[in-house]
Amino acid sequence: MQPTRRALLATSLALPAVARAQGAFPERPVRVIVPWPPGGSTDVLCRLLCEQMSQKLGQPFVVENRPGAGGNIGHDAIAKSTPDGYTIGPVTVGGWSINQYLYARLPYDPERDIQPISMHWELPNVFVVPAQHTPARTMAEYIAWVRARPNGVTYGSPGVGTTAHLSGSMFTGRLRIEGTHVPFRGAAQIIPAMLGGDVNFALDNLASYVPTIAGGQFRALAVTSAERWPTLPDVPTMAEAGVPDFVVTSWCAMGAPGGVAAPIIQRLNAAMKEVFEDASVQDRFLRTGARCLWTMPAVAAERAARERPMWRDVVRISGARLE
């Protein structure tokens, strides 16, 4: 039986409509909310991605920093934006796997209100000390130096409950070192405090400290990855430095509000795949301190779910709690 003229017309109209729905996005600039201040690892690595996404999709990806409350302000802004794909943002391990155990109440539900697009990056934390104020050149020397100090040490982080804070708490607790946590709004504030001698160490995201390590202002004593990091081959792992069972990696995924249509998520995911398959982009991420990652959305969601029990226990042990 030959198709009717009406059926043929319906098909010819429907196919372009589907193509338009999937292929037109984005038709205007995309807002990218970064839940951390300018200059930190999340901001730096997001801007690298946005530069490439703008080229791939032909529209500006405009970064808007919304820091505060351990990332909750920015994460909440992503979650509550219009679900049309024109507002997305980097959601860190804190936003997806830590803050629900740290805060008495979150303004958003990390499992319901934000959907992943793809993993974005992963990096270790790095144990850094200000070279001008610290004689130690190895972790063993540093531990001995700290234990000789009558008032212990201070360590900085981008905020209570961040992986930097929890890593510092794990370090001082495990080694029975007297350590005082000093929260800041981001690495851009921690670095001057350390250079001024007001803070003794940080166990913070590597990407924030690459320039100062390379410039000699900071001395890297260890990384928290399971193996030595490619761009710091002479820096030992925590296990090699004498602190076993201390593997902590920070990670981030690009997220969108819950309810964004699947074709839009797929288009953004496919563009990220193209970006991260580029060897020059991979090299830029590594030189910045991170490893870029592409995954299907479900893989990012699975990782967040898998790590929640571990971070719940770490938060409990640290005693951190925020309203």
Automatic annotation (TrEMBL):
Signal peptide: 1-21
Native source species: Plastoroseomonas arctica
Keywords: Signal
Protein name, per record: Tripartite tricarboxylate transporter substrate binding protein
Bilayer-spanning residue ranges: none
Native organism taxonomy: Bacteria, Pseudomonadati, Pseudomonadota, Alphaproteobacteria, Acetobacterales
One Pfam family recorded for the sequence: TctC
Family: Belongs to the UPF0065 (bug) family.
Keyword field contains Transit peptide: no
Keyword Acyltransferase among record annotations: no
